[in-house]
Amino acid sequence: MTDVVVTRRERARAATIAEIKEAAFGLMAESGTIDVRFTDIARVMGMTPPALYRYYADRDDLLGDLISDCYEHLGAAVAQARDAVDPDDLGGRWYAAATAYREWARTQPQRFALIFGLPVPGYVAPEDGPTTEAAKRAMSQLGDLFVSAAQAGSLRPPLVTEVSDAIADCASDKHPELDGIVPPESFQAMLQAWASLHGFTCLEAYGHLDWVGDEARDALFRGHVAMIAQAAGIPVPN
Amino acid sequence: MTDVVVTRRERARAATIAEIKEAAFGLMAESGTIDVRFTDIARVMGMTPPALYRYYADRDDLLGDLISDCYEHLGAAVAQARDAVDPDDLGGRWYAAATAYREWARTQPQRFALIFGLPVPGYVAPEDGPTTEAAKRAMSQLGDLFVSAAQAGSLRPPLVTEVSDAIADCASDKHPELDGIVPPESFQAMLQAWASLHGFTCLEAYGHLDWVGDEARDALFRGHVAMIAQAAGIPVPN
DNA sequence: GACGAAAAGTTATGCTCCATAACAAACACG
DNA sequence: CGTGTTTGTTATGGAGCATAACTTTTCGTC
């Protein structure tokens, strides 16, 4: 038995990295910005700024790690909320997943902006890199919902059934796992559902729906999610 | 006849301000970022950085002006595209307006991020300030579409007709001009349409739909806009 | 036309932060 | 113990924001 595959130092290093990211997220939430200063992170941690360069090459390097983490968090939040609902209640699962997406974004708009905002030119997500993988995993949490529905035979045809060849080709090319399970029109509807959910989430998280008021905004979200479900062919309980 | 209400100096100043903003937008497009350096603006203009402080108090001040301009630009682009289509062809008008929204965003994602990205904490839009006014004007370009449709009696009931009292109250409170013209369920549908359009636009502008490919993305957009129109009760030519 | 004030632009300067270099302390492991 | 790695420090340079003090240009007015 190798009781310690990770050395004491490796654990300490991992803990420090975790603390750095925690501090970074905390400062982002506090300042309301996406721009974290090494100086501030170091101050929070009781260190001097140059010490951080032992863990990250530069600010972009840290940013990339933060982005990966955010994708993981978001994906996990969506998956957890979705799986907490009866698998047979597809409408309920969709609502739960959508709500998790929304809540994750509006409780920490900075983290949401980190992954879905204007990409920083310094950090180009490496093809098949950890960030890209994390993004795929996170978004597939929504996609799996459609797969389950299709497999259960509960997925109804979407509102828009016309599908261009380009989209059908894209589906079978980029997502061959859907072949024979999720029809092209539902693949299209899935992307539309994501885009529609994403739009509301963006507008709310960045304050563009503040004028609506809390109660009305909640109601609007419920109506929005219901609209999307109907348009996408997700069965809602009558 | 007052042949010159604006003095020579005022014109020169206005021209310089326009040049500053032009330089700022150009640098944003070039760098791919939203962060413009006074140093760079000055360099482009053949000036020294401190000279810019004669025109803007600080970077946030310039930013606020840029944001207002972006709202104006976007609103004008949407209105122009919409009004270029036969007023009786509501589906066509909606498609034109949505396409203008999309194109404006994806041709210069930085400008889009400027107005719809994570708000910079430094610049708080003053209540009823020029920026807020510009935002209202811009967004009302989409709203007017629904008003026209309703007035023409061509607006059909949306996919989701259940409306909470909070939303109905919000509509008559914040937008009394719609009272008796646009029913609450269509007001709700209008916001949902905007959110859905906005979501696709955000995802595309920031590169999150690059994997789909150009042709499929165009088709997806057309399908998305068609879906939104149907869900919102905008009559589409069968 | 000439003078005084205002506007516009320049150089000089301080501050903060990113990033690197050079050095010191702590720690694992033989 | 003692040696090399890891982790942290202080010292330093460079870039950019912002202000201050000074110079030049421009406009209105006598």
Describe this structure in words.
Two copies of one chain form a homodimer. By secondary structure, chain A is mainly alpha-helical. Helices cover 66% and strands 0% of the residues of chain A. Chain A has nine helices and no strands. The first copy, chain A, has helices at 8-31, 38-45, 59-83, 90-107, 109-116, 130-151, 165-174, 184-205, 214-232. The longest helix of chain A is centred in the N-terminal third of the chain and has 25 residues, at 59-83. Chain A is globular, with a radius of gyration of 21 Å. Chain A starts with 7 loop residues before the first helix and ends in a 6-residue tail after the last helix. The relative contact order of chain A is 0.11. The model of chain A has no long low-confidence stretch (mean pLDDT 93). Chains A and B meet through helix 5, helix 7, helix 8 and helix 9 of A and helix 5, helix 7, helix 8 and helix 9 of B.
Query: Low-confidence spans of chain A: pLDDT under 50, at least 5 residues?
Result: none
**Assembly type:** homodimer
Distance between the termini of chain A: 57 Å
Count of DSSP H/I helices of chain A: 9
The interface involving the most residues is between: A-B, 57 and 57 residues
**Residues in helices of chain A, as a percent range:** 55-70%
Shape of chain A: globular
How much of the sequence of chain A is in beta strands?
A: under 5%
Helix/strand-derived category of chain A reads mainly alpha
Note the main sheet of chain A: none
pLDDT averaged over residues of chain A: 93
The H-and-E topology of chain A, N to C, reads as HHHHHHHHH
Rg estimate of chain A, integer Å? 21 Å
